[in-house]
Amino acid sequence: MAVLTRRLLLGGLLGATALTASGASPRTPLPTFRPHVLACADWGADPPAEAPVLLPRRPKRIIVHHTATDNATDRSLDHARRLALFFQREHVRRGWGDTGQHFTSTRGGVLLEGRHGTLAVLDAGDRMVEGAHCVGQNRESIGIENEGLYTDRLPTAPQWAALVWLCARVCERYGIEPTGIDGHRDHWDGTVCPGDALHAGLPLLRAHVAALLEA
Ligand SMILES: [Zn+2]
User: Fold this and answer.
1) How many CB atoms are located within 10 Å of the residue 3 CB?
2) What is the per-residue pLDDT for 14?
3) Contacts for 46 with CB less than 8 Å, ≥ 6 apart
4) Sign of CA dihedral 10, 16, 22, 28
5) What is the pLDDT, as a whole number, of residue 215?
6) Distance from the CA of 164 to the center of ligand 1, in angstroms?
7) Residue pair 37/4 in contact by the 8 Å Cβ criterion
8) How do 128-129 and 37-38 pair as beta strands?
9) How far is the CA of 28 from the centre of ligand 1 (A)?
């Protein structure tokens, strides 16, 4: 985790204003940005309809999604909880056993565990929970849903920052290169997810994740 405690990345998004306001040198190390990931038990998830399936392997990649829901202006924790519960119940209704994706990132930058058990095995980095977010990739990838519709815009600044951090964390724990961050459409023809704009932003995302890992 050392590489993540000296972060740098989002200087342009989050740190620049603070540095300017304080008159600090641009070379002043930026504060660590380590968002808390709310575990299922923290955000009030229902028990999973089916027990999570633990796979004795590391995922090969990260798959980025958008939820294709409203670009909500409510950035609160309560909103994040309601959103996560909405998706869990919808995905269980579809027969997926639990929330389909491993993680959710809200427009307020709140990170939540999706599928039960994901966080419990992330630290050790040698097992993964089988997902239900991308046909053919559920045993190969970690799925991250980004709240919103990103056909013509990128995620909010806090959401982007949270996504970068989470991707870096997953890459670090599982030994995934930032080049292993793909969009849903890259693995399934039946979707335009994560939207044209976010898909076009994936090279930037990979670059930011690489910068954070190297910081
Ligand atoms: Zn998707």
Assistant:
1) 12
2) 39
3) 85, 88, 89, 92
4) positive
5) 82
6) 17
7) no
8) unpaired
9) 38
